[in-house]
Amino acid sequence: MDAEEDNRYDVVVVGSGPNGLAAAITVARAGRSVVVIEANDEIGGACRSAELTLDGFVHDVGSAIHPLALASPFMRTIPWDDHGLEWVMPPAGAAHPLDDGSAAIAWNDLNRTAVDLGSDAKTYRRMFGPLVERFDELVAFSMQPPVRVVRSPLTTLRVGPQLLAPATLMARRFETDAARALFAGHAAHSVLPLTKPFTSGFGFLLGAAVHAVGWPFPRGGAAEITRVLGAVLEGLGGRIVTGRPVTSLADVPDADAVVFALTPRQIASIAGPALSVKTRRRLRRFPYGPGVCKIDYATSEPIPWTNPEVAFAGTVHLGGTLEEVAEAEATVAAGHHARRPFVLLAQQTLFDASRAPDGQHTVWAYCHVPNGSTIDVSATIERQIERFAPGFSDTVIGRRVSLPADLERDNANLVGGDVGGGSYANLRSIFRPTVRIDPYQMPVDRFFIGSASASPGGGVHGMSGHLAATSALQFLDGD
Q1: Deepest of 219, 271, 350, 434, by most Cβ within 10 A of its Cβ?
Q2: Nearest Cα to 61, choosing from 454, 461, 359, 460?
Q3: What CA–CA distance (Å, rounded) separates 449 from 441?
Q4: Cα separation, 11 vs 418, whole angstroms
Q5: CA-to-CA distance for 53 and 61, rounded, in angstroms?
Q6: Which of 13-22, 146-155, 333-342 shows the lowest mean pLDDT across its residues?
């Protein structure tokens, strides 16, 4: 991946996260020449792995669990097995423990999940059963550009209003705290107050994904995903150049089209004079969402959950009841730090022993904080873990805390610690980065945006990059 002499390319992709690599693969598959330019010395963006705490403990630098990787139309085209990637599938996608020692478990099996929810079993089946049966249509609805020909108008009319509703409204269809909390935990991935429109869409998509494709992760670490994507690209004749920051268009090799797998603020800085004053102003005003404070732990033993069934899930949502999760997310959205934050936790080494020395484990956890926060809330996160796993702190033998500035320093796309590529408030859950017929083509014809800041948004699915590259190819073909 060393730099070679620059040539002229059909397309240059700036940024080598999953979206950037997806864009480049799409271009290379069309028989066009393409190069990916990456500022860091290794590819992957927020999809990388490293020994962040102690020797022998492999942690995911950014994304850790990948519920959209096997759902994504683009990712389904990647021959993972041919490149030695093994997807690990825990028996449960997510667990949500409560203070009374109970826990709502989103088992991969929909019926088992429903039965465990007791009096809410019928409601759960009614809400999620049809979505699981027609999951491909749900994915098409959620992962395609907002202006498109709808494949199934009937499904859109029936399901669309539910996806657009506030999560608090949909969660209250359940009777029990457990079922309500489980839905709230899924919906809180929106990083929005759960009273806002569109938050149910996150709850339904992620909840249905548990039963349709699972919430997997690659054995050995998230870096395996980008390793395979990079290998596929180079096998198609695409190039990757690392260790080359792009600060202006002078750093971009000559090309007929440029796909920026970057956020709007960075594009405004790089493209500068090539953009109109109005466009630069609009890009600089693009709103970013809350940041995160992340902790990577090395532990001497598994997390001692009060409810042992929580250990069957790769992902754990820590936040208590629906009301508590909603309050925490509303507090952060208002620019404050939650007293009891919603914590996302991953415990991959329960299912992938390759990531830690024998008998020991890694834990990945973060909570939402105001964008750009400089306050270390690691003690608050740890209290939330202890709340549902007393004695957890005694198992910790190493930890690394990353504040928003640390995350942005490592990956410039994480502006203010925002891991979602920008706010999802209001219509930005659908129209990203701006309201345009083609959301990927910028006012300068040969520039395209293919990051999480573009539809369909965050997650390791590659669709933003793939769709941006598709738009770029249409431009090159003169369509």
Answers
A1: 271
A2: 460
A3: 7
A4: 28
A5: 11
A6: 146-155
Beta-strand (E) ranges in 8-155?
Answer: 9-14, 34-37, 49-50, 59-60, 87-88, 92-97, 103-107
Q: Which of 175, 315, 205, 255 shows the shortest CA–CA distance to 8?
A: 255
Alpha carbon distance 237, 159 (integer Å): 42
Q: Is-above-0.90 flag for pTM?
A: yes
Joined together, the tokens standing for residue 411 give 């990956």
- pLDDT tens track for 149-207: 344 554 554 566 777 889 999 999 999 999 999 999 999 999 999 999 989 999 999 99
State the number of CA atoms in the 13 A half-sphere of 14 facing the CB.
28
Given CATH 2.60.40, say whether it is the number of domain 87-217+290-410: no
Q: Which residues, 6+ apart, have CB-to-CB distance to 86 below 8 Å? A: 218, 219
Yes or no: is domain 9-51+222-286+421-476 CATH 2.30.22.10? no
Highest mean pLDDT among 146-150, 165-169, 306-310: 306-310
Domain spans in the chain, listed from the N-terminal domain onward:
9-51+222-286+421-476, 87-217+290-410
